[in-house]
Amino acid sequence: GIGPIHPLQPEERQIGSVKLLGFLDVENTPCARHSILYGSLGSAVAGFGHFLFTSRIRRSCDVGVGGFILVTLGCWFHCRYNYAKQRIQERIAREEIKKKILYEGTHLDPERKHNGSSSN
Amino acid sequence: MAHAAQVGLQDATSPIMEELIIFHDHALMIIFLICFLVLYALFLTLTTKLTNTSISDAQEMETVWTILPAIILVLIALPSLRILYMTDEVNDPSFTIKSIGHQWYWTYEYTDYGGLIFNSYMLPPLFLEPGDLRLLDVDNRVVLPVEAPVRMMITSQDVLHSWAVPTLGLKTDAIPGRLNQTTFTATRPGVYYGQCSEICGANHSFMPIVLELIPLKIFEMGPVFTL
């Protein structure tokens, strides 16, 4: 998974992890569990819905598998995009906090410059 | 460092490694979906009653299974190239360390700090103290500051070696007669381990790399000089 700090020890992390097809760690990969769950739901809805309308078992299974892949991919990209946006915002916030701690009270303090210009 | 029987990547200690882990997750999800599709196709093949072996002229299917893999490859290639170019960004390193591979130890030169040079040998099992890591700990670690861009110049004095630290996302070949460069910025303090990653003789497995990353304030006080 990502991130330097994990509350569990490596052995505990291994016990809790579920690896789909033996390699996809859905517990420790951000967005994986969410995508797979929605994909499964999408697959069930699409497959069962197709069967209700057509009564064709084989084709409904195909629609179910296709639905799983499409819904999983869609949720995955959507979630990862938001995750990337969140990480960028966290980094900006971290940098701003660091700058504030460093420059507060000095002549480089942006708040002091802003207050000075507004009072003028 | 890796724990016993670890298969996955180690936690990231540099921004590049964080990006690599993100890319790895992305590629693994695509691989999982492809495997799922292939397993389903295999299941269908093994359970079908249809036995016509002279199917021809399936233009639509052939178009789909040509275009779709091309799209998948583009989806994988774009983030990969992004990270590739990110690793080559010039970020004005604070200082430079030279790492020279030998059979079978590393030499480090801190030429920015008055020409400090030292060798780094693996600690033999008989010299290990309680808590030391077998085949990983060394007598002299590479001490570096956190959150400062560092340039590593890597070369070899005899045969091919490779200087690798997985948690930083680094692996650079040490080639005799050539100076390779890599840069990194560590984001958290700690002790990080790597091992020689190019076969170099009998003791190739016994020339590890250990980085000790400490806060910049403490690094500037000069602990690296107390050898």
From TrEMBL, chain A:
<keyword id="KW-0472">Membrane</keyword>
<keyword id="KW-1133">Transmembrane helix</keyword>
<protein>
    <recommendedName>
        <fullName>Cytochrome c oxidase assembly protein COX20, mitochondrial</fullName>
    </recommendedName>
</protein>
<keyword id="KW-0812">Transmembrane</keyword>
<comment type="similarity">
    <text>Belongs to the COX20 family.</text>
</comment>
<keyword id="KW-0999">Mitochondrion inner membrane</keyword>
<dbReference type="GO" id="GO:0005743">
    <property type="term" value="C:mitochondrial inner membrane"/>
</dbReference>
<dbReference type="Pfam" id="PF12597">
    <property type="entry name" value="Cox20"/>
</dbReference>
<keyword id="KW-0496">Mitochondrion</keyword>
<dbReference type="InterPro" id="IPR022533">
    <property type="entry name" value="Cox20"/>
</dbReference>
<dbReference type="GO" id="GO:0033617">
    <property type="term" value="P:mitochondrial respiratory chain complex IV assembly"/>
</dbReference>
